[in-house]
Amino acid sequence: MLPRRYLPSIPSLLALEALDRLGTASAVAAELALTQGAVSRQLQVLEGQLGVALVRREKQRLILTPAARDYVAEVRKALKTIADASLTLRANPQGGALNLAILPAFGMHWLAPRLARFAAAHPEVTVNLSTRLRPFDFAATAFDAAIHYGRQDWPGVSFMKLMDEDLLAVAAPGLLPAPARAAGDLLRLPLLQLDSRTGDWGRWLAHHGQPGQRPAAMLFDQYATMAQAAVHGMGVALLPTFLIGAELAQGRLLPAFGPAVRALGSYYLVWPEVRAERAPLASLRRWLSAEAGETGPVIA
């Protein structure tokens, strides 16, 4: 339950925020369409409710105390949250918005092509997508859920597995016209890998009978960039099969050696444990569960 005695009125908070931003009572009065006397009364009401002095008067000017400035910084965030919620409600009065953090490659090549089906099935939900490469604190963001790759190692969240990931060693035909005869032969060529997954080549080589190796490789922060580097002949890359279907079909990338190998991690939908589940998230979870089931065992 909200502590109502410490919830000041919105007009009082708006007056305090405007004073911090504009600097004078006359400017605040003009912005809020009030008299200067009314502005002063709003501030007095706020001080009375909080039991703390917020302003001091110097040469007929109202100056915020240091504590009041710290308070305003938090109040401004809260006011923005209320304004954003109001905009969301007006934009979608029949449903709600869902803020989803996605991984770029997964979002572009697996999720985005399917979202039209979700929109058709759930026109009451507006999905907002933003990119995040690594786990974050849900409490410090407006995200309702996120796509996570790895293990179930994100603290404070619930997990729903979407799919595993298979990695295929690929290269441009100009770099490697035919598959290598042995896995170790690829070590003679430049290698490409993600900076967040520097053990992938070592695990791939161990899978093919070459244990104990951690070869040097050019680093990339996203699969999409690394895939393009591979297409342009910069090196051999380990890439998820769901990402490179078109490149393989068109011959822009060729398998470098052997079949795809199951990656160490999987893809998950995650959401904060401590928040009550909203209807838009429940709808997305059910839809993703069905989509992942239809996809089969290769993604997540």
Notes on the structure:
This protein is of the alpha/beta class and 300 residues long. It has two domains: 4-91, Winged helix-like DNA-binding domain superfamily/Winged helix DNA-binding domain (Arc Repressor Mutant, subunit A), CATH 1.10.10.10; 96-300, D-Maltodextrin-Binding Protein, domain 2. The chain is built from ten helices and eleven strands. The protein has helices spanning 10-22, 25-32, 36-50, 66-91, 104-111, 115-121, 200-207, 223-231, 245-249, 279-295, and strands spanning 55-58, 61-64, 96-102, 125-131, 145-150, 157-171, 191-194, 218-220, 236-240, 254-255, 261-272. The strands form two sheets. Strands 3, 4, 5, 6, 7, 8, 9, 10 and 11 form a nine-stranded mixed beta sheet that branches. Strands 1-2 form a two-stranded antiparallel ribbon. Helix 7 links the parallel strand 7 (191-194) and strand 8 (218-220). Helix 1 (10-22) packs across helix 3 (36-50) and helix 1 (10-22) packs across helix 4 (66-91). The model is unreliable at 295-300 (pLDDT under 50).
